[in-house]
Specification:
alpha/beta; D-Maltodextrin-Binding Protein, domain 2; 6-stranded mixed beta sheet; 3-stranded parallel beta sheet
Amino acid sequence: MKKLLCAALVGVMMLGMTACGGTTEENTEPDASAEESQGTDETAEDTDKKVYIIGTDTTFPPFEFQDENGEQVGIDMDILAAVAEDQGFEYEVNVLGFDAAVQALGSKQVDGVIAGMSITEERAKTFDFSDPYFDSGVIMGVAADSDIKGYEDLAGKKVAVKQGTEGAAFAESIADEYGFEMVTFEASDMMYQDVITGNTVACFEDYPVLGYAINQGLALKTVTDKEQGSSYGFAVAKGENAELLEMFNAGLADIIENGTYQEILDTYISE
């Protein structure tokens, strides 16, 4: 009788030990559903990463223009790409034309604009600008066979300007003094062709833009010294996208320091 009782007690103890051990093993196994949930959260985080929409001009070489493959290239495009890579943000370029890009930024249809945009006091009332990334200036161009040598030869004649640009602002500032009339165009190439065909006798343009076009074979020549102009900046709407502006400034400082910025300029502007 004692032997049977002892055997029964041992059996109960063994069952208890086996049950506890099984529970312990089950509790120490990884929770597969938790891992799957964590992976889903990471994927969602990647999917939700903000993509900034950046507006730009259509034709403003060497800052933005289409290459032979139809790709938008230029100094602005390369700087934006280098800054984005340095800072790790994603973006899409929306090619709108200068005026349309500025209007889209004002109505918050794009997050930023990079389009050879001069930093001015007037624009600073509406937009927040990055640190300057290029110092520009205005120069006058005339047809390659023109006899015009300076502003004093413009009296009673028509000159071409591109709407909303620093060249247009400068031409307007001296129009009364030198007695010429302004004709406004939406794109640089239209402005150039108007001068070449003789409808207007001169145009006012940012010096690196006109210089690049002439080096590419445009039938114009420059006849004045460069007028001191404003610097170019990356712009966001006033009080909006502060984090994008901070990343642009930080990235710009980095690419200037590591030499990437100068490499970009050397690609498009020769000494």
